[in-house]
Design the sequence.
């Protein structure tokens, strides 16, 4: 989980005061709540490489995956299959399989889970091969941008192109990619994506999710969707009539008015990313993670005990390294945690370490490796 920006609490406080002083008028006064969802669009579009009308912040990640599946999983008589990765984040697996079941399609027969190699690596060739051989039976590919367990960044463009070749859609869960690595969703022709804002984006626990739908679908008012009043044409929304005239672009998928109190924390974080610039952050990130990898693989005490699961190729990873421990993994985790390093433990024996360019330093990377070395002295 990303750290709290210094400005966050005063931004929240400002909205609390506005609510106390203006009540419902806060919706329409200066800096109105009704148009709140427009505010983060520029920054979000830069993070994922999209047009502003292709991105919006709303709901939470799993909810958005459901909304996207409702739109993009439209199985036909012969086109029902879905490709995900084996070992997918459970929420993504549940979302996909529940849509299949709800439509009377058995996941046993129609869900294809691509297996990684023994190091957890998914080869692009293997993914594309599976897409192409599934052919017209394939409805949808839904994969991570960065796989949460191994830290591998998938080749979004090649996967999307392969899916389109067989007439299927390609969508991505960018929970571990957004704010970590720059992307080019629009240019890559990705159909849809969603992410949360509390991992590399520092928006606070459980805060709002970001969504992308390519304009080629988003601008089609007839594209299937689960609709709500906030997606209604803004000039007639408050007439409260029942003819649905969706706002062009992703905004036509909005259901509800924004949760202002928590969304301003999202904006606080987006402002920082906008100032820092994701491409500049990426330059530092490559060096920071390269330094971490260098220190680990050249440390005689540590070397025999770990295997780095994350790809060595820097274009196939963000800042995270996943360290598989042959032994004493739990001991190492406890020692590091006790000494103030915030890490993540994954069964059976993996520590995920993510030096983030926004606030981690090269010195901290060094300290981490020294502390880890103490475990094996
Ligand atoms: C973090 C994460 C989630 C969490 O979903 P929420 O709806 O925000 O609780 C889902 N999928 C992936 C891949 C994640 O990394």
Sequence:
């Amino acid at each position: 989980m990303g750290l709290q920006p210094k400005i966050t609490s005063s931004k929240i406080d400002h909205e609390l005061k506005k609510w106390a002083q203006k009540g419902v008028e806060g919706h329409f006064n200066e800096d109105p709540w009704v148009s709140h969802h427009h505010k983060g669009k520029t920054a979000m579009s830069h993070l994922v490489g999209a047009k502003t009308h292709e991105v919006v912040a709303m709901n939470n990640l799993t909810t958005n995956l459901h909304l996207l599946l409702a739109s993009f999983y439209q199985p036909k008589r012969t086109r029902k299959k879905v490709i995900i990765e084996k070992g997918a984040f459970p929420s993504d697996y549940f979302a996909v399989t529940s849509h299949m079941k709800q439509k009377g399609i058995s996941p046993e027969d129609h869900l294809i889970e691509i297996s990684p190699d023994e190091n957890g690596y998914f080869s692009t060739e293997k993914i594309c091969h599976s897409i192409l051989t599934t052919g017209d039976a394939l409805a949808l590919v839904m994969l991570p941008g960065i796989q949460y367990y191994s830290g591998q960044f998938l080749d979004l463009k090649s996967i999307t192109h392969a899916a389109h070749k067989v007439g299927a859609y390609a969508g991505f869960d960018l929970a571990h990619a957004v704010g970590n690595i720059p992307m080019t969703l629009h240019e890559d022709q990705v159909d849809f994506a969603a992410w949360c804002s509390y991992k590399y984006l520092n928006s606070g626990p459980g805060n709002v999710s970001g969504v992308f739908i390519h304009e080629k679908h988003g601008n089609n008012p007839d594209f299937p969707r689960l609709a709500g009043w906030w997606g209604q044409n803004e000039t007639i929304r408050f007439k409260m009539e029942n003819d649905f005239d969706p706002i062009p672009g992703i905004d036509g998928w909005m259901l509800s008015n924004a949760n202002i109190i928590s969304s301003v924390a999202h904006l606080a974080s987006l402002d920082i990313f906008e100032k820092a610039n994701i491409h500049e952050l990426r330059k530092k990130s490559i060096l920071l993670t390269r330094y971490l990898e260098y220190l680990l693989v050249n440390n005689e005490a540590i070397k025999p005990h770990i295997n780095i699961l994350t790809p060595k190729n820097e274009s196939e990873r963000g800042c995270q390294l996943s360290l598989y421990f042959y032994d004493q993994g739990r001991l190492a985790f406890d020692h590091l945690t006790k000494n103030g390093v915030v890490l993540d433990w994954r069964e059976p024996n993996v520590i995920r370490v993510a030096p983030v360019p926004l606030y981690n330093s090269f010195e901290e990377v060094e300290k981490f490796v020294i502390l880890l070395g103490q475990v094996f002295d």
